Amino acid sequence: MIPDETVERVREAADLVEIVGLHVKLRRMGGDWRGPCPFHQGKNPNFAVSSRRNSYYCFKCGAKGDVFSFVREHLGLDFVEAVKYVGAQAGVEVREVTARRPQERDPREPLWEALAAAAEYFQRLLWDDAAAAPARRYLEERALSREVADAFGLGFAPRDPAALQAHLHALGHDDERLLAAGLLVRREDEPDARPRFRGRLTFPILDGSGRHVGFGARIIGEGEPKYLNSPQSAVFDKGGLLYGLQWARHAIRKADRALVVEGYMDAIRLANAGLDEVVAPLGTALTEAQAALLVRYTKNVFLLYDSDEAGQKATFRSGLELLRHGVSVRVVTLPEGEDPDSFVARHGAERMEGQLSQAMDVFDRQVQMLERRGWFADLHRKRRAVDKLLPTIRAASDPVTRDLYLTRLSEAAHVDRQVLQHEAEAPEPRRGPPSRGAAERAGERASAPMADHGPPPDDQRPPDLDIHQRFPSRPGQRPRGKGKWKERRGDEWLAELRPPRPGDVTGLAAERALVLVMLHKADLAEAIVEAIAQASWEPPEPFRNAVNAELFAALSSHGATADLERLSEELSSAATAELDRLLAAKGELVDPQALVRDSLAQLRGRSLSDEVAELEQAREHATGDQRAALDVELLRLKREVRALGGRGYNWYGRLGS
To answer: What is the pTM of this model?
Structure first.
């Protein structure tokens, strides 16, 4: 037998339209889906499937029922087999039990239980604990009522380091379980575990079956990182989950669109305003796994990221990932200084619908930005503009979309369409420094002194950035094969990568220092990853040495407690040799936090200096208002570069706090 609660959990998690669609060719008609009836072998669309009512009905033969009856009648299964089949499709594990002895529990159940207990505790503290008063004031300032906060399970993690453990210990959850669930963290130099979240507003994260799997947490008051997520665990996969999908999926199916926003507050604001089809990635840009989740429900996605530089880069990284899955991607541009949360709070859902109606295709938006920046003004920059746009064309898996993009670029650049098509279909060139995906081939050259890689003559320099993202497609996903990293195009069209220069030597020392700290100081490793992920880089990624990049990506993927023997098996020979050197260099860590602070500032300064150089080059070709705008931006960047000269500059906050 199968427990009733399991049956109900499967029923709630199941997507009837998706399951029926595996066996019947369905088309949307109004609010429902129609197709030929599989029970009387009909040819006309008399068979209606409703995701709202979670039922089906044939107007010809009268067949009707729910997801279980469909599977039983169409596939000839008994009830137990039907529940198991639907559970497998919905991602819910189904176990039979007997009256005498239940079968072994899912080993993840204790983690789900501990996380659910923590969520309940946090939610109660938010309203009952005097120490949570700043969090309540924050919600009041954001115009979020208690009713709304409770609807989304918001809570408060106490500052008292003993409070959470005492509460959960009383419920039978020991420290090892809480460590496995990501609720506690144990520093290398401290014997006792401590809470991961302290003094933060908590946002519970649920999986597709409605189980608590982790938290996002916002700092209340000063401190960094501003947002902190649960770590990778047996139940939490940051790159494979979407915040809000458990409440949004039926709305997405009904509206045949998904709204992707950047943060938890954005998602809550839009959903509370009636735009239920909203989700948020647990970071910035969508991963491959998150895009695959969305495409199960719709082929129409609107990206509503913040309007700042980091938001723009996340927009186009997400757009490329969605295009690879055949999705129609539109970009919503909000007024200057607005984000989805603030815009809906001020103007309401109706005005947001107006913004959605004006959304531009992601490729059109890229062309528009390049046109406004003068990239099609002369032959030299026009060539580079084409290079910046080709990755988006290549990403479009839908042939019609790709054809439309080629035509649009031909019109914008005044380049023959056949020439552009040939260029888009040609293998992508490897320009500039070696990609991290090519670490095995570039190992010896990458580990050589940077002074040997001075800038080539101007006529040999790459016209544009061609950098392959070296990170796995989602956190926790390991690379396949020795030294072979999954390559994914990023937001390279927004930036330009210069070849390594002698002046980069200090930057390489900073890269090495960060990897060294990550290897030896588990309490700082994740904070470094968070700091780098949240910063805006120009170029988009801060690590330019292939070996340093490979080590950083590997340590980020495997976490601070990486099995070094297993890790070394997946690294290139050059990276393995460097790993051995870093393991022997622990004595260099006299003041790790100061080393991290200075190294991050050094990388940021290098990035800003490159951006200044690019804008100064662009200024030479600019005139009038465009030149004046560049002067303003150059002044801002130069001030930020000067600010980095002070030792007190601490853009990433208090690491490990």
So the answer is: 0.60
